[in-house]
Amino acid sequence: MSSAPHLVIIGNGVAGNRAAEILREKDKDCRISIISAGPLLFYNRYELPDVFKGRQDWRDYLENPPEYFSDNNITLRRKSIVADVDTERRKLVLAHREEVSFDQLLVATGGSGYLPERLQETAHLTHQFTTYRSAMGMYRDLPKGGRVVMLGGDMIGLDLARTLIETGYHVTVVPGDRTFWPHEISAEERPKYLSALETMGMEVINHGEVERIEDTTGSAAARRVVFVSGETVAADVVVTQYGLAPMVDFMSTAGVDIERGLLVNPQLKTTRDEIYAAGDVCQIWEQESNGYRFYYGWRNVRKMGEISARNMMGEEVPFETEVDEHLIIKDDGSIDSPFWEYSA
Ligand SMILES: Cc1cc2nc3c(=O)[nH]c(=O)nc-3n(C[C@H](O)[C@H](O)[C@H](O)COP(=O)(O)OP(=O)(O)OC[C@H]3O[C@@H](n4cnc5c(N)ncnc54)[C@H](O)[C@@H]3O)c2cc1C
């Protein structure tokens, strides 16, 4: 058995893959394993709205050719859910009970679509748009030119809404606290941004809190959104977009500090020396506010992957964002966000 250190990354997303790339660049001999719950190779989720533009083959979304992992001597374990981390024994416990030893660990498990408690009972009547699979599920259920009711909004959802409108669908946004997540918009400024959505072709309705979703399959539209006020809206598809919640449950007994995300110092190290975290899963210490905060978006997440890897290799580099986080209204009245910037 090899005596090279085993560096294990949980998560096959932007942060995890960038970290693996840097680790391999810095050390040709270390063992690198990426463990991922998902079934696919590393693919681009930013472009998933393109399924509505006819780009439906999952291979079109791959970031690297399939041979990338073997060419770089990176072991990728797919469909493997990490259920527990035993820090004393330095072992991950997979859901199917297998144990994987590690010398250093990077947690890059991102976030899953957040769903408010009151909607959980009817979640099966709604769609999420977080993975290739869920994107295709929504595509299949939505008739051509049909009506999407988007609960919440968030910048991922609003990006999808832009493509839906461009490709001939009707989008109704039911705004909530997280409509512009991860941007924080004050109550005074909200109306201005909501009317910008209307300028962009979305219908914005304010009937108050959603009470439930009903299955009306067989009638003109498959779903009905019922508000506490008694008002209703018909939809072919209801999609929930309330931002992301960090995927940290499996770390609950790992002996690291967690608030909502894994708490890390500016070098992206958790409260244990051998465990780092990067991407949407972590909250980074910020001296200025005397607290921990999330940094979202492709550029931040990719940089976190890089910084965590360099520090795992013995450097002492702090994470600093280069992203201007402001949501702006352009001259044509539409909104633009650094969160929508993506370059391969
Ligand atoms: C449809 C869509 C569009 C988006 N568009 C944009 C955009 O335009 N611009 C932008 O900046 N951001 C966008 N985002 C957000 C962006 O995708 C995330 O911020 C980014 O992917 C986070 O990267 P990450 O590496 O932290 O985690 P992720 O990319 O979420 O990767 C997490 C990985 O961890 C794995 N995982 C989770 N839990 C476990 C476990 N217990 N065991 C094993 N594996 C596990 C998952 O399978 C996955 O491989 C979009 C997101 C979506 C879903």
CATH arch. level architecture of the largest domain: 3-Layer(bba) Sandwich
> What sequence of helices (H) and strands (E) makes up the elements?
EHEHEEEEEEHEHEHEEEEEEEEEEHEE
Cross-sheet strand order for the largest sheet = 3-2-1-7-18
Q: Into which percent range does the helicity of residues fall?
A: 10-25%
CATH topology of the largest domain: FAD/NAD(P)-binding domain
The average pLDDT is: 95
Biggest sheet details: 5 strands, parallel
Provide a count of the helices. Answer: 6
Number of strands: 22
Q: Tell me the fraction of residues in β-strands, as a range.
A: 25-35%
What is the overall shape?
Answer: globular
Q: SS-based structural class?
A: alpha/beta
Low-confidence stretches: none
List the helices and strands and how they pair.
Layout: E1 6-10, H1 14-26, E2 31-35, H2 68-71, E3 74-77, E4 82-86, E5 91-94, E6 99-101, E7 104-107, E8 111-113, H3 132-141, E9 147-152, H4 154-166, E10 170-175, H5 190-199, E11 203-204, E12 210-215, E13 223-227, E14 232-235, E15 237-241, E16 244-246, E17 262-264, E18 275-277, E19 282-286, E20 291-293, H6 298-312, E21 328-329, E22 335-336
Parallel strand pairs: 1-2, 1-7, 2-3, 7-18, 9-10, 9-15, 10-11, 17-19
Antiparallel strand pairs: 4-5, 5-6, 8-16, 12-13, 13-14, 19-20, 21-22
Helix pairs in contact: 1-6
The site of flavin-adenine dinucleotide has 35 residues, from α1, α4 and α6.
